[in-house]
Amino acid sequence: MTVAVRVIPCLDVAGGRVVKGVNFVDLRDAGDPVEMARIYDAEGADEITFLDITASADERETTYDVVRRTAETVFIPLTVGGGIRSTTDVDRLLRAGADKVGVNTAAVTRPALIDEIAAEFGSQVLVLSVDARCAPGTGTPSGFEVTTHGGRSGTGQDALAWISEAIGRGVGEILLNSMDADGTRAGYDLRMIRSARAVSSVPLVASGGAGKVTDFETAVAAGADAVLAASVFHFGQLRIGDVKAALQEAGLAIR
User: Fold this and answer.
1) What is the mean predicted confidence (pLDDT) over 10-38?
2) 83, 60 Cβ separation under 8 angstroms
């Protein structure tokens, strides 16, 4: 059976606003997340991903409010990540209207968090967000290193080994973000996608670097099951419909 490619706009949220920069720095305001989610839903997005990129305690409630208001406005799946440290956080987000939750830094720090979330809520709600960078000098076997804290901290941990471990622990989906390509619009990191595909038995979402419609097709050809982008959608360079039309023209199934 052919699985339809999903096209997912990503809303990086800080202080209740969508922001976007390059390599997670030089952030600029891109709009109201609830209104943007409504527009993307109308344009045919398959899912919406919210990433609370600051995730400090004083903004947690802001995120719950954004999720609640968005869930009341749109009827496509919502994935929410950023600052999730416990099953209690997951429970609150699901009750607020999230369909899936993404874990990153807290899971790297304490991998058992994955086991706990999967056991309580099921693998289908759990996404591992992997912020990886090319780091040939770090001694990682694959040359790809896991980073945390929005890409600001290197871990010395091999990204492919981490993906394999997390899947074994119960993660249901991988969101693979190339920190080198993030916000550059120079294209997805195809080598990273192919490498992750080789070790991943769960759906793989490619993120980081989309700049033109053909980039999405090449990411799928490299092994992505879904393609995620932010700035090209937020600032009007591309529309969801443009991407879907290009994927369909390339002979790929879309929703």
Assistant:
1) 74
2) yes
